[in-house]
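Example record

One chain of 239 residues, shown exactly as stored in the release files.
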Amino acid sequence: MKTHALVRNLIAAGLVLASGAASAAAFADNFESGLNGWFTAGDVADAGGFIALTTASLTEVDDDPLPAGVFNFSGVTAVEVGVADGLESRIGLAPGALDTADGFAYEGSAMWRELTVSAGDTLRFDWLFATSEPYVNPLPDYAFLLVGDQVIRIADESDAPFPPTTPFRRESNLSTFEYVFTQSGAVRLGFGIVDVGDYTATSALAIDNLSITPVPEPSGWALLLGGLGVIVASARRRA
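Predicted structure tokens for this chain:
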């Protein structure tokens, strides 16, 4: 009985210490408090438990014959791309950084914040991409993850073949994106969406359930392994 109690106590202590070391830098945001802590540019809105970013203007007829701004959720117009004080400069990139081999980016929206991470930490979030681009000859609007000065594509119009549950023409499945940080330190983490090729046909990105799970610190693993070593030694003595 004493041996069993020792085993239970050492396992519990090791796991608590290891998880405590790992959780120090953990971060999570399910956006129940909206955009608290985030900076935004363009049409970024709390859509009731998740965040929606669109390429929708308030003044231009993006979705003719529908009126201007019909897909704009925030009342803030999408931001020009590739110009001074445009979307790229607001998120810390050089003008032209959001252009692709598929074409020039014209307008878009983004959200971002500064976080401290460690190499090996894992970012996860749920996403859905919706677009009003036509099925035939669409332009390659895309959504992206920003990590420092890295622009990482999350999805584009080719990922949205399904009939919509939203007011858009078509959409993707609800999916989970995962990214492992490769460097430690302060980093700008952001999300964005851009129109590519023209200003028409609004596209949107929905983000929810964001989390950063830290890699366990070496000290936490050492405590856990040390506890397991004591358990093995104790069991051998009593055998």
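Notes: The first strand starts at residue 27 and ends at 29.
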